[in-house]
Design goal:
212 residues, mainly alpha, three-stranded mixed β-sheet, 77% helix
């Protein structure tokens, strides 16, 4: 009986030792797995951070490029609007300049005097008598007729003393002209000086020179 009891105690002790050994082995195995899991978790976190960093960096570059494009577009648009505004102001100033000139009391008087003196000048330098003959043609009846209509507008100036002969079929230009008249330099100078020294004309000239 004592021998049996001793064997039983030895078996229990051995079983306890085996259990302890198994427990130590499991603990060692868990201890060995824990660093590996931590490494894997750190590796995943690092990759996720790197991916997020790349995304944020890419978005930053995209927004930076977009901002640069918008800045250039806005700058060009601003310059364009300033240019348009400047041109419109220049046009407005020019229109206002001429409106002011035309509204001046001296302007219509000056223009009326210049027109009167110009008529006298043209009447003076035109020939008193015109004689001659002109034959012309362009091979095109329509063109020849148009030229003839323009010439006939001046018929009162020469009357029947100048003959115009149109050729509606052939291209030709021939003729001779003899003019008779008189031009007095004193009269031309008189027209010019009385126009220039007129107070209304001088006021208009002064206004136009002031813009230069």
């Amino acid at each position: 009986d004592k021998a049996s009891q001793a064997n039983a105690d030895s078996a229990q002790i051995a079983s306890g030792d085996d259990a302890k050994t198994d427990g130590l082995a499991n603990a060692d195995a868990e201890a060995a797995l824990q660093p590996q899991q931590e490494v894997e978790e750190m590796s995943f976190s690092t990759k996720a951070y790197q991916l997020l960093y790349k995304i944020v960096t890419l978005l930053g570059k995209c927004f930076g490029a977009l901002r640069g494009i918008l800045t250039k577009v806005f700058s060009k648009l601003t310059d364009l609007l300033k240019n348009i505004k400047g041109k419109l102001k220049a046009i407005y100033d020019k229109v206002d300049y001429w409106i002011t000139f035309l509204k001046m009391p001296s302007t219509p008087k000056a223009l009326g005097l210049i027109l009167l003196k110009s008529k006298k000048l043209i009447k003076h330098i035109l020939p008193r008598k015109m004689e001659g003959y002109l034959k012309f043609g362009t091979e095109d009846p329509y063109t020849t007729g148009s030229i003839l209509a323009g010439i006939e507008m001046f018929y009162p100036l020469w009357g029947s003393s100048f003959i115009v002969d149109p050729d509606f079929e052939n291209k030709v230009m021939e003729g001779n002209v003899r003019l008779k008249g008189r031009i007095y330099l004193f009269y031309l100078a008189f027209l010019g000086l009385t126009t220039y020294f007129n107070k209304n004309v001088k006021t208009s000239i002064a206004y136009l020179k002031a813009d230069d």
